[in-house]
Amino acid sequence: MSDAPSTRQGHVGSLAADGSPRTAYRPGHTLPLRVELVRQLRRRRTQVAFGLVALLPIILWIAFELSSDDSPGSSLNLVDLAKGSGTNFAVFALFASAGFLLVVVVALFFGDTVASEASWSSLRYLLAAPVPRARLLRQKAVVAGFLSLAALMLLPLMALLVGTLAYGTGDLVSPTGESLTYGAAAIRVLLGGLYVALSLLWVAALGLLLSVLTDAPLGAVGGAVMASIVSQILDQITALEDLRNYLPTHYANAWSDLLATQIDWGNMTRGVFSSVTFAALFFAAAALRFQRKDITS
Amino acid sequence: MARLRRPTHLRALGSPLLTLGLPLLALVLLASSLLVTTGTASAAETGTVRTTEQRIEVRGGPGVPAPIGLDTTLYLPERTPAPAVLVAHGFGGSKASVDADARELAARGYVVLAWSARGFGASGGQIALDAPDYEVADARQLVDWLGTRPEVQQDGPGDPRVGVTGGSYGGALSLLLAGYDPRVDALAPVITWNDLSQALFPSAGGPTAQPVDTPARGTFGGDGVFKRGWAGVFFSSGSGGSPGSGSPGGSGSSEPADASATPSVPAAPSAGGVPAAAAAQAGTPLNCGKFTAEVCAAYTEAATTGRLSPATAELLRRSSPVTVTDRITQPTLLVQGEKDTLFGLDQADANARQIAAAGGTVKVSWYAGGHDGGAPDQAVRDQIGAWFDRYLRGDTDTVDADSVSNTDTTFTYDIESGVRAGRNTSTGRTVVAGAYPGLAGGPAVTMTALPLQGTPQAVVNPAGGNPSAITSLPGLGGSLGGLAGQLSSFTADLPGQSASFAAAPLAEQVVLAGAPRVDLTVARVPGQPAADEAVLFARTFEVSPDGLRQLLGSAVAPIRVPVPADGSPARVSVTLPGVVAPIEAGNRLVVSVATTDQGFASPAEPAVWQIGVADGARLDVPVVPGRSVTANTVPFGPLIGIGVVLLLALLAWVVARIHRSRADVPSPGAADAPPLEITGLAKTYKGGFSAVKDVSFTVLPGQVLGLLGPNGAGKTTVLRMLMGLIRPTAGTIRAFGQPVGPGAPVLARIGAFVEGPGFLPHLSGADNLRLYWAATGRPAEEAHLSDALEIAGLGASVERRVGTYSQGMRQRLAIAQAMLGLPELMVLDEPTNGLDPPQIHAMREVLRRYAAGGRTVLVSSHLLAEVEQTCDHVVVMHHGKVVADGTVEEIIAGGGAATFGVDEPARAAEVLAALSGVHDVAVDGRSVHAELNGTPRASAVQALVSAGVSVESAGPRRRLEDAFLQLVGEDTTP
Where are the alpha helices (DSSP H) in B41-152? Predict the structure, then answer.
């Protein structure tokens, strides 16, 4: 590049000319969602996350096909149920992934969003553009939320598709032994995906907070995932009794109540309340911190 | 939550959101925790229960002259007098095994009396199997005793307000006591029998079908098949070998199922042997243990013959509630287990039918447990508590609103899917139906007919009845007992011993609730051995399409059929074991008839039978429609909580927005304000490091100003503050007359390149610039993107991912980015780092021409030459302070000082000093410095050369460089 001609002979003359009348700076037009979405969508990370989520049902299906038939003696387990119908398969896929994979996906989209900009140093140029800090955080959170929701809904949709092709449109048989018709069950599964999304709101908010606090994307994503795992572990300690109700993951599986003919909304409502409360707390902390932070990356 | 909605808190939001958000949300969190707890707090406040232990003397009964001491414990609630509850223990247990249940009831407000029945625990006497003259009489005397206690609420003289409950052996005692003693006001027998002879010698087949009235009606035919497995376990646990056992949390269902628990009664032998002295003293054989001679003889006879003699039948009948059910008018809650091969659902069904027929109030509840499963769970114990609340205390509202247990006679049953799932996944649910079908006021039972297929099949009864099918594991209980269900898939069907008749796969799920029925034919096979009668075991399997078999209830229905000698088939109506099982769509029900079962005494003579289903035969499956017990409504508290949180978030957002828009009002900057005016700027980082101290300088339009200083001088910190990335500790920055801070609108007029490039590595250079410009929200045509790209000079590489760029390429791209939109003030931090000389040269040209149009450029550098050649003004910084400020000429030329490189410094100094106006001549190595004071440098060189001094160089004296090098030299680290 030592002799890149244009730099030496650049038509810099045009620079000297005074520009045409400038458009006034409008803070509300900075970092449009479309732009941020393109910035994120073209990242390998985003594509891999979506690919993984879309592939998971197929991987599950292959695993089921490869596994040898259970001896007829043992009682039913969730895997046996999953082979019953497309909706059962989707339920299993959601069960299998809600506790970890989807947490990682959400933590990735939210935890990485600001921290990665900081690590690339592009954050300071965005802020100097200037994109107002609150707006930057909001636009990034909205896009991360959109990507998370898309990934979270992609999983049940793909699982329904794969499951239906592989195992047909039979009734859903819930772990409690109730049956639901395919159509009703498909809707319930999608509702389940929505609930999982809502119940992961706190992970999203925590990821964003950590993303603002640290310049290391891995730290932010890992921190949010770690918090979820710790909460899940604590939730298994029955000696904590009612204290466990305050754990953010306590109601993570409440969506399985959707699989009954009569839906018990109790735990789901509590779960949404818990998640929304934690999320509001973390989002507020993230906004406050980002507003005041010295950007030194 | 009410407190949160007070307006005072809302008013507080008027102050900046930034300080408020956290405490506000903390409050929300607190409130939410309160909400979450309200639903779960209940039960287990047993701190205030007091207990007293006493021996109560009761009459020995017929044939036992001496009184017998019963070991009892009285549990007193917080407030007395209160109604009393007798809690009877299960077979093989003692008063200790019902301690937890007693405490739970006492905590609920009842005086509870628990005792060890005669023959158990530390009580005296012998086991007479709940005989009216012995155990029942004992319990009546305990009621008498309660009638004398001041702690117990009394209905009349000697008539306490009393209820009775107990599991299994204690359950039968509850029924018998209620039948014999009208002073009992309510009862809740658990997993118990109606007719002991039918429980131990069941006969599920008869020549005619039973009426269809209740869902689990058993056949209760005569001459049953000896249930030797259970009977043996039952008998041995009363033979003294098994001490009193505890079943923590159980409901007195301490049957053999719990016999492995810790010994709690020191008087009992620890294990195995019978105390010879005690046995000898009683004059009974050692094999009889603590049983009365009569019971012992009956068992011995049954075990050896496998048949029910009239005497034994009479003895068992005396001990059966069936003798008194027509007298029981007290409200009765019958709790029966769905996993119970000892006392099945048919036993409770019979009790319910008989008590209801006599006009009693009956409620039936089936739970997912039993002698093969587990003790009742909290929900069932709550039902029992609520039953007593209602009928002993008259309360109707002590239970949760969503619970079914406070309604009169609703029938509830648990459905377990049998699916193995994770810990958090519920695999069962409770269904509530209007009332027990078939009872007065209840709906009729619904039977679904499933046609059976299958030709008659020959089955073999092996000689000695061995090997035999294993379907259940009597006496193991709990999780081990549950194994039988899985085991039975392997062991329930021995080759040649069973005939199967399958129904078609179900089109939709059917929840089987009760005892299915089937009509069978049994005939001799010509030329094959046969007896007068066939003993067969009918079972129901659920078979999935992939061959998974599940024996419903792990239970079998034994039948004894006389088979005509002429070879014609005998027809028999069979009631299969009562179960609750969800049969999935696509699965089929299969009726299987076997010749052997490990749990029963089957004939020893070999036989071959031809088994078929009767013409048009079908499997009649009882179904009890109901609804799942769920809180079908959305809980109000959390819902309001969600609303409040969202409302607060909205409010915070609105406040923040108002706050921001107020801050955004641009201050009227003077039209001719300088592009940059920095006054008194200081920055102290956390930890006390002062990076910048009191920096002031002004940049005027058209200037190319160099910010010069060694690394660490604070240049970058100043530029960061200028970009609004960090906040100054003190001082102000104004650009074009407007204040600069984070996100200040005036930043849009400043282009910056500070501390290295920042690009998205996954995008190409061109895309980076394009998206960056798009992020500024300004029209694309103002970007002058092509100009900028030309300056970057990346050629075709501009379409490559930035991640593949060299440092110099990124550097140039970053400068191009700073120039996007041709900002009026451009700030470049070390712009020539990583550029090669031609590029540096070109860059200088670019900067000069950029400023020529009235724009302003601020360049920071640690290289003097850089600043010298590029800038017209310079600000020198060191240690966070401005040490020099002026035009480059002012600072560099220093008013006409010159330096000459010469071969003879001393001679040169003389020559120079001799020139007019020249002063301050100094020798510095091979250089001579002088203040020419107006004398042209060329003249001075001329003079030197004339004087024979060889001049190697001549130029302005670099005072700045001296000073600068000195400054840099002081820094030990770069």
Answer: 99-107, 137-146
